[in-house]
Structures
1.
Amino acid sequence: MAALPQHTAARPQLAATLAHPAVQWFLLLLAGLGLPFLVYPVLAMEMLCFALFASAFNLLMGYAGLLSFGHAAFFGTGAYLFGYASKMLAFGPLASLACGTLAAAALGVVFGSIAIRRQGIYFAMVTLALAQIVYFALVQAPFTGGEDGMQGIPRGMVFGMFDLQGEQTVLGQTAPWCLYLLVLVLCLAGHALIARLLASPTGLALRAVQDHEARARSLGLQADRIKFWVFVTSAALAGLAGAMKALVLGLASLTDAAWNMSGEVVLMTLIGGVGTLLGPAVGAFFLRYLHHALAGLGGWVTVLIGAIFVICVLLFRRGMVGEWRAWRGAARV
Amino acid sequence: MSDIPLQAVLSQVMLGLNNGAFYALLSLGLAVIYGMLEVVNFAHGALYMMGAFGALIGLEYLEAWTGIPGLRLTFWWALLLVPLVVGAFGVLVEALLLRRIARLEPIYGLLLTFGLALILEGVFANGFSAAGEPYNGKPEALEGVVNLGFMFFPRYRLFSMLVAVLSCVAVWWVIERTRLGAQLRAGTENPAVTSAFGINVPRLRSLTYFLGAALAGLAGVVAAPIYSVGPHMGAELIIVVFAVVVIGGMGSILGAVMTGLALGVLEGLVKVVYPPMANTVVFVIMALVLLWRPAGLFGREA
């Protein structure tokens, strides 16, 4: 009985500590370091890449209210340009990652200046069509390897001392730990950038634009400009995610740029929770794991993905994180 | 350009017009569904694919599947029955799925029908070869070529264009000139007032999706003898049709049809002049039109 008051006193303190951003980022880092002990390390890295991809997409869908159905174009461009820089130009991994990211950002500028004029479903259709141009360009470009994709992209060394190719054993788990750390740090950095952006004055303005665009405009906010730069940021991060995927798998393929991929990132975000910070990452983990676990099913995976889509839209629009929050919120009241 | 023979240009223009007729038929269905239900039907390509498979299954597999000897659907029967079946499937989709999200933002309709398209595509990809199968049921009467004066053109392709144009005219007539069409337009404009006049708006919505799906199914049946019948035939097409719809604007039926035909011809011309661009020219045009007129050529700002 005597322990009870202590217990209730300690809880708010613990909750306050846990709510501190620095503590939360540290916990995420720890969770990230633990991931390769739970799943196959290459799968873990793939999950992290897709988590960043989905979060970049969610920046646009969840916080700017713009559903892009062409984000695979940025992901694919990031992957292919990483491959081009690393394999053809023999750049180091970091410079190659930067190449992929910048190329996707430049593409984002082009897409953004065309698509930002339309909203809602038209925005979705326009981005889908623009992405199709990129897809066909990648099919025909001389360096992409056409239908085969670009294979055997080297991983290389970081700062001349960290070998991304080699494997090390940590706590009994053998994995390419250098590569894993790089991917984890970049993934977390991308998420931190998104969180920082949303907490900034620009983020507040973005929320105002999403809530009531006409009113935000009448307050003097340049809605189109804000949306444009969010679009470019989202494109750049999606490009980084694609470049990291090419780094991890040593492969850039047409699947990365195809419309199915654009649909898949929508589903990751939807299933995890649109407009939540962690939701898209959760959705990406879930969906990548599903792909991995059900690889033996072959073509039926498409049917399953479609069914999950339909179920999400019908019954589960808040996503996993959104539902959990709603449940916790209801429990508190 | 001068070294390209006129014959090649003309034949590509005719083939382009043929493709354009399909674009027109599909974008018309999309526009009809969007007008009434505010749903951008991503499954439209899948319904088109279902139409083509309907014709193929009726011809090649029905006998084996049902075990009734001699049971085959000839092309003409398929042309009549398959659109009705696809339309009925559409009614089910509307009643079981789309109705539940009718009050939400249109974007959810797009996502739901995208999921549906994946399901349909996946099911057919598992049952049939991904590369596609030819449809060998082209009727005798439509074999051979016709002399158009300036070139010889396959009789069947001419027929397919005729079907597409007639269907477009029929849909225009129903919507603009009949009592039912007036009710549809009223239901689109103001559902609450329309139902206050005693018109059954939910039934109108079902009927609209039936009409749109049946049009897609019809396009599929007509397309079956021309293109090979495969599970992915609708997916690529639907993205082009989306671009057509963005260019034309979804407001007008005539706009959708004209844009579809014009883009088909343009695609044909590009195929002669600069083949690598043929796949993308529609999307490039779309980007240019958006820069010039954000609402599309015939559209109102949405």
Note: Residues 237 and 315 of chain A are 30 Å apart (CA to CA).
2.
Amino acid sequence: MSLETFIQQLANGVSLGSLYALIAIGYTMVYGILRLINFAHSDIFMVGAYFAFFLITVFHLPWLLSAVLAIALTACVGMAIDRIAYRPVRNAPRISALITAVGVSFFLENLGLVTVGARPKPFERPELMARVVRIGPAAISGVSIWVPILSVGLVAILLYVVYRTRLGMAMRSVATDIDTTRLMGVNVDTVISYTFAIGSALAAAGGIMWACKYPQINPLMGIYPGWKAFTAAVIGGIGNITGAMIGGFLIGLIEIMAVAVFPALSGYRDGIIFGLLLVFLLVRPTGILGETLKEKV
Amino acid sequence: MLKVRDLHVYYGGIHALKGISLDVPEGEIATLIGANGAGKTTTLRAITGLVKARRGSIELEGRDITHWPAHEVVRNGVAMAPEGRKIFRNLTVMENLLMGAYPRKDTAGIKKDLDWVTSLFPRLKERFSQKGGTLSGGEQQMLAVGRALMSKPRLLCLDEPSLGLAPVLMAEVYRGLAKIHNEGCTILLIEQNARAALKLANYGYVMETGVIVLEGKGSDLLENEDVRKAYLGE
């Protein structure tokens, strides 16, 4: 592989990885708090991209404003899903919540197919994302530069919220012990609601940037990125935000590099990732940063 | 201050509380003693709204709080240091204490109470930026009590604050409780260690399998033949 291709593939892997990381954080935050795999998360990612698409094409809003509004709207959708679908089964056995999540996922996908149709729609990306940048000998598309930068920025904001604010402190408390958090005078339902809002906002940002990277959107576009981001969350150690980021970048790089180094494997690029998931589940199910929970007696 | 009348609680099909009535007058220390499984913890959980009462009523300062969610009960002046300490092990000692003050908005007051709590339990000050999970059992107990105090409660509920503590640490926790009480806080205390609890309390209730079988002044219960036999090991 020439240096030029290597740099190109590296940029490609990093930008893909940063998108997986953004989505993975949503899985991991909800799991950390509710011990629920939110299967609908991958479809929230799709909803975010569609919101942006319609705000741009139908309402003719400027691109950046559309993106911001789409993220806010998607956060509301996330909160609504929690309120309507998950809160009623909060005290039910965990498997009920899991099945509910699968149901919400199917619902969103099929709602998309019915309302906007299965035909992919072209997604307009801003000039900045399309412009080609030269790094050394390599020509790299703007997407590969801006997506990681924006993603890291969003993650920095997220980490600030989780580790430096009152809401973040409450979120970490809920993740440790819901009942005791209630005893602190915290309205746990509100905290959970905000968690869904934050996770969904990140998924929407991911969806919009995904649509910039692969500028076609369809109602099932969330499925594969969702599964891979879920893999990233598990590999990083589910429930752990830093782990989700590491997992995301790792998965993105492995997916791109495996195919770049062994072009014959290009048909297996999804298989490689899911194989990795199986290996981790067998060998180290708690993931890279996951800790086995030890209670102090 | 707190008035519980004919309280019934079920866990699934199990009738855990079968008509509990008790009073905690303002400024006093009341204690609930009894064997494991008698329903002491359930009583506290019902008062704080963590479990729902099937029948009966709970009144706090004249208001019916029977069906309030836990966070509303806590926001109205009740704090609980739960059984097993339940420290947020991933949060630092300071964050644990700040969680106790979660509903409060008075930054200056919170800061003052941080100083107050760390003066009650100086060990917490030394551990301020350590994760809660790294503390010893006794330190965690102090943190649990301190965290409960951070909400500036008018009624403090304590579930087995001496459980698993070495006698020296237990004495330290009890000295803290006496101090808190002197500063005007009403206390409802659950204890396995009946002797220590009855010595500290103005009034005591003895529970057995979901009912209160005996009640009286702390000093009277200490003298009571049945109590001495059953709970004081004499």
Note: The longest strand of chain A covers residues 132-135.
